[in-house]
Amino acid sequence: MGWAVAVAVLLSASPTFVTRGDVTPEADLRREAQAAWTSLEAQYTAQAGGLPTRAPATVTLQKGTSLSPERNAQGRPGVVELRQNTPGVLDARMRTALRHELAHQLLWWACPASSEDRLFHEAFALTVSGELPAWRDGPYQSLSRAAKEVASAPAVDTSRARRGLARILGEHTGFPAALTRRLRQCHDGARWAMPLTVEELADVAVLAPEAATVVVSRHSGEVLFSEGDVRRAVPYGSALKPFLYAAGTALVSNSDAPPLLAPRRGVQEWACGAGLPPKVDARLALLRSCNGWFLDWEATGLAPKAFGVWGPVLSAVGLTGLPLDMTEAIGLRSAHGLSPWGMAQAYRLLAEARPDVLGLLTGNVDEGTLSGLSTSKALKGVATKTGTVRDAASHPQFGWIAAVDADLVAVIVRPGKMPRHFVDELPALLTRVRRQAGLDAARVQVLGLLPSATVEARCSGAGFSLDDGTPRAAPPDFSRLDALTSKGPAVCLGSPWRVRFPDGPDGGRDYAGVFTWSTPPPYRPPPGVPTTPSALKARRGSDFVFRTTRVQYTAGVVAAEDVTLQGEARVALARVAAHNERHADTRHSGRALCDTTHCQAFRGTVRIRPEESRALQLPPLKWDAWLTFSQGGATPWREVRTRSEVEALLGTNLVSLRFESGRVRYLRTEGTPAAPYEDARSLPCDTLRAGLKLPSCPQRASFDGPQVRFEGQGRGHGEGLDVEAAKASPGLSSDALLEHAYGTRPPTP
């Protein structure tokens, strides 16, 4: 029959259904698809609160040629493939399969943020397609067993997994509340920071407890160590109390500050250690984890509800629901859960926003829930918070420890244990992770050659701007970086920042770290030194300061300077880049290095190579000075510049030019026509090279009428480490390459 297109569109939001003649009868199939779409659309609208304003794309309905035996249909955006066993017959099995696949098509159109969340897609399709009763038929299945079946097949593409999912969906009557929350999130345009979990869907913890450990960088946000299912949400106990404290102490007047409260004798919730003072303040209540204090704080009417300004942060990193009251917030009632990964991300932002709260938590090993242990001294200076989840008999189900030091955020969850019984794992964990060299902070001024208003950033995870310690959600799309950093740092949880600017690379660059706004002081060039507008910008520095790990910074510099480097030559350059980051004062007094050739190039964070990791494991370099390097090489070059361009840098009436010892030496005619004389001057050769955009410092120059001809070889200023020469010396170690480049005496800054 060839191609046939439906001409009747019942709703403005309905797609055009196209058939190909291989599934018949075509007209009936299109009518069935239209009716199913109308029903699905109504269910979506009722739960989400509306539909997108854009029209859906065309959907092609065709025969499946590669369907597995257990599948009756499958799809991808814009295409539904169906199994038709009997030509001309649209049986009940096929109609159900069509509705199921159209539910996916509806989500791809109406909720594109959820496209990668297979559990959410399948849960929605099973719920709205009308097939749940059929999946529920069969022997009884426990909720925990069903959860294990789904967890064993995260794509939910097996019969056992779908039967398990149907069991979980049947745990509550009506439309699943978890799906409703997610659909409204889609309609509101919120980011999809965390995939749907089985626990969130069932609204209870259904899987057997498992140990989990995760460590992330405070600076770059990357996961440095992970063990167990760190993405699984479980009840959190008291581990989120610091966020209540932060919400209750953020920019409030003294009259609204957390109160001093008297302990109530004989009340179990006030059993938080011996020797409580007559009045307990918020600090001691947090360190002792006094449930009674938090409950009585709520009774005053002054406590933050649903974690206050930190509620959106916790939701963005996967909290399965906001607490209705203080018993849920402090974990006395396990109504909601959070994954260890989400906990680590939340504490990373808390450390950035409220260093005062982290400072308070360092007292936990002295007078809090981890005091008086043999491990306490080993954790001096580390901010810690514990949490214990108990069953009805008060036996521990989960123990939590969240720990933050200068560079790391660690979260440990252990089933059946209290935190004091496994805290001895924490020092060993931190030591183990720190064997990865270069995890300390590195700072760099970035994007200084660009007008700050033209730089935009986007966080594909959960982005936040800090406003005097208060987190504000960043827009989901690209927005101006100066606006994101105007009142405090900008932090992207769960992914790097993506940064773009006019004439930059398509798609932008990744920056895994934290941006802040810091206006540099005015730059005044030395008298008599010619400086181009571009050089003035570079020497001024940037309004944007970026913080990441030293190994991430080093890898970014090496990739920007010479991405082709390998082996010992790459190790040598990485050691120089890391060394120079510690000598920023020679380039920008009192500030971080810049990302231009005035310092050393840096164009965002990249995948770390083994050479960069090895370079930072080697001893520090012995030279206490800035170390220069250049691309170098021996390739000859010739360039021509106009005499006026050269004289704009060096002055008029040039007589001669020569080059030696890294300097340009030149003569200019001065005086009067009646009494002329020649004035000898010199400048660093790199001033001329950069100003004229020459490949390297020239070896020769000759005057040819209105032009000046330059000759040289290699690339760069020609000082220090010659990268091309290092490439051509495969037998030398990085130590030998650096010794050859810099010798035994400190180089001149």
From TrEMBL:
Region annotation (Disordered) ranges: 703-749
InterPro entries xref list: Beta-lactam/transpept-like
Protein name as annotated: Uncharacterized protein
